[in-house]
Amino acid sequence: MALPQSVFLHECGPREGYQFEGIGQPDKISTADKICLIEALAETGVKAIQMTSFVNPKQVPQMADAEAVVAGVRQKPGINYSCIYLNDIGFKRALATGRVAVHGKLTLTASETFCKRNQKRDFAQDIEMQRRMAALYRDNNVPADYGSIMAAFGCNYEGVVPEARVIGMVARLHDIAAEVGSRLKSMVLADSMGWASPEQVRRVVGAVRNRWPDLRVGLHLHDTRGLAIANAYAGLLEGVEMFDTAVAGLGGCPFAGFKGAAGNVCTEEMVFLCQELGIETGIDLDKMVECARLAQQIVGHPVPSKLLSSTTRRPASPAAAA
Amino acid sequence: MALPQSVFLHECGPREGYQFEGIGQPDKISTADKICLIEALAETGVKAIQMTSFVNPKQVPQMADAEAVVAGVRQKPGINYSCIYLNDIGFKRALATGRVAVHGKLTLTASETFCKRNQKRDFAQDIEMQRRMAALYRDNNVPADYGSIMAAFGCNYEGVVPEARVIGMVARLHDIAAEVGSRLKSMVLADSMGWASPEQVRRVVGAVRNRWPDLRVGLHLHDTRGLAIANAYAGLLEGVEMFDTAVAGLGGCPFAGFKGAAGNVCTEEMVFLCQELGIETGIDLDKMVECARLAQQIVGHPVPSKLLSSTTRRPASPAAAA
Q1: Per-residue pLDDT tens over the stretch B120-166
Q2: What chain A residue is nearest to B222 in terms of C-alpha separation?
Q3: Angstrom distance (rounded) from CA B296 to CA B290
Q4: Given CB atoms, is A223 within the 8 Å cutoff of chain B?
Q5: What ipTM was predicted for this assembly?
Q6: Cβ neighbour number for residue A122 with a 10 Å cutoff
Q7: Would residue B36 show up in a list of annotated catalytic residues for this protein?
Q8: Exposed site from A103, A159, A161, B41, fewest CB < 10 Å?
Q9: What is the CATH number of domain A8-309?
Q10: How far is B307 from chain A (nearest CA, A)?
Q11: Which of B12, B253, B266, B291 is the catalytic position?
Q12: Four-CA torsion A80, A81, A86, A92, nearest 10 degrees
């Protein structure tokens, strides 16, 4: 495969970051600050921003202000403002705002233990929920065209996730979409707990591509063990051109088993990587670094981003010495 | 190229880390703590440890205790205990300890501006110094067989370093070694300021390999902009099997122009990467993580390592669910 010419980066920082920050301290990040970062991100050239999660406020109280966040953001034309919902209640809440780009997203989780902790459902219940979601999408004229597999590379509770299980789940999602007359166009493989290695990324992406050549494969890579950017490069080597990223490297999952673990692959480092590889992102790197600085102020502690402590610029004119 | 079956990791944390930590505060890290970390590292399975730098104590006062560090370390058989010297005075100091594995190392710097700041020499003076070092090695029966190029991928002051300049400098080092009847066996390409991209690593390594197929190529990768582990993976893809790494990701160069910039590629993350890729390191990952924890205690602030906040273990037995 050749490196892609351009990539689509889906900014997840506002959702990834705060669900983790607010554990045990749900009001730590103010709604106003959440809105402020989303509006700053919209100025960077990023084309998709995940604003928040419509999840159970009893489980994730730090996301209880989802409606307020969505209502408060002054949306910029040309940007896809999305959010997360893990069940029908969440989808209906998102839809009710009238201000969220709803996707017909179907998600399965390749580790049942993680599924039980994160989605509060076992495999069978999770499949049933995806069926219910698919029907709900159909009833609301939303195409069920976007699949994702969580814990697609490994799990803190279950260990290695066999490739065959991931392939089986992608097939299952195709079936569920077909049941409501839809067809999956995209499939995001999520390394929810940061277990992927670069060669595994290449292998699993290759296996999915091999079976479904027309499916657009995306990657959602956590940096729990420091390999996210290497895994992203491995994805690029396989021609992957859709990535979830988080400004400043915010993130971490409250149900993944480790507090203090690093978040998503860092947006500005991904933009920098792409820039150095000659891959177009459409994002202004300096503006994204400024957003990372803002994110760091908002969370009130050092963020994982290394680029933030450095500089994005090589000097303009190389010295005369050769 | 195939991935290597095993890699040689050269632990530079004790040298990389403290030169940076001690800026403006030369006594911040006690000699006893420096010794303690070196002795802990020796228990991990690592085969080479860079203990300290014999550099001008007026320029780098935090390294003024180099002799005391070397004298204090109880050396473990089978480990190569080395150190850094940038000129004849440093080499003689190292030699005088009688306790340092001295290498006939010849180093040129691909950015003259960085060379002036870091080595306090211009290109011509630097070449003359390498000649003097080569003669000194010959006089002490040390083969001048180990080359390195600093700033081989880019420079904070000069920007992009042309590949042709790196090749020219490697050729020059071969000539200098030949002048004293030696032959270079190894060549470390150092991304001293963290400017490399994965594709550039592959290109430059490939170019050096192409011209000198018998030369063992090593990589010294800084993580200034978050790409070190991706660059390391790129090196592995080119078959590179010798890397400088730093426990906990310690490091950063005091003359590189940015305070707070991240250090070297993190040893434990490199070991983890190799483990996941099936590449032997000889290092016990859990013991290395414990060393990273010790390093963090010693420096007294959070270190760049992400693995340190996570876990190195997948659960032993995958769950029954498939």
Answers
A1: 999 999 999 999 999 999 999 999 999 999 999 999 889 889 999 99
A2: A306
A3: 10
A4: yes
A5: 0.92
A6: 14
A7: no
A8: A159
A9: 3.20.20.70
A10: 4
A11: B253
A12: -110
